[in-house]
Amino acid sequence: MNDQKLKIKKKVKKHIPKDWLCELRILYRLSMETFNDIRRTGIVNLVIITTMAAILTIFGSFFRTAMSISSFAHELGNVLEISVYLKSGSDANTVKNRIKEFEYVEGVKIIPKDVSWTNLKREMNLPDVVNPLPDTLHVKVDKPENIDSVFNKIKGLTSVEDMSYAQDLAKRIQMLNNVVNTITVFVVIIMAILTITIINNTIQLVIQSRKDEIEIMRLMGVSNWYIRFPLIMQGAAYGFCGSLIALVPLNFVQNGLVHMHQFFMVPSPLYAQNVVIVIMFAMGTLFGAGGSFLCIKKHLQV
Length: 302
Prior knowledge:
Blueprint lengths: L1 H14 L4 H22 L2 H36 L1 E6 L5 H9 L4 E7 L1 H11 L12 E6 L5 H9 L4 E5 L2 H43 L1 H9 L4 H41 L7 H28 L3
Antiparallel strand pairs: 1-3, 1-4, 2-3
Helix pairs in contact: 2-9, 3-7, 3-9, 3-10, 7-9, 7-10, 9-10
């Protein structure tokens, strides 16, 4: 029976012409309700917005720093090479072609022992003796985390006498990258909890102050979303305003990181600042609206 009524209601609704002027009036009314709710909250608004701005600043700073560290890790990973020293009598070209078949290997460069010996004698005052150096291969890997895998594969070749690479540096880069990413995720979780808690308490106060008004609207048959929407928009407004204020300290962080990239001659991540700003505004607004929505479900039975 209920399903049949719902179908009839939908059919009737389709044939009712939409009054766009009425829709605009409703939207204007909801916007004014949101503004009045914010005005009723008073000085508490300033506390909420500045608190959210501080939370979003911490998030934006960690997120932007994580992007820069990832960029540094990528660039340093690109210059990390595995030095492979071949046994006497081994064919360097054959070993090179064999290594190029390994996964994660981007390139292999042969350094003949004569070239190495000539460069060494140029740098150091050495006696005229027989060249003791072996032929060397410089193997470039695509990512720092794949160096160990490639290293172990090359180590199994019979033509290889010895190998070396900056293992400690590669591990430190990877560890730093993982730590910053973990901290960023942790900050996002803390940010969500704090934001939802702050917004929850604020909207609860608004609901209590408008308790009689909301009850009257219910008795008049006002739509549930008409009651909910201004409260949700109030939470979203707090997140948006907090994001606006957070842009100021975030700009200082951005300038500092750009100078650091320039000093070390490492390119800054493309559109990093724009990405951080978009995500910060999206998260601030969504968490603010989400906190209001959860509070409405808990304290307002509509």
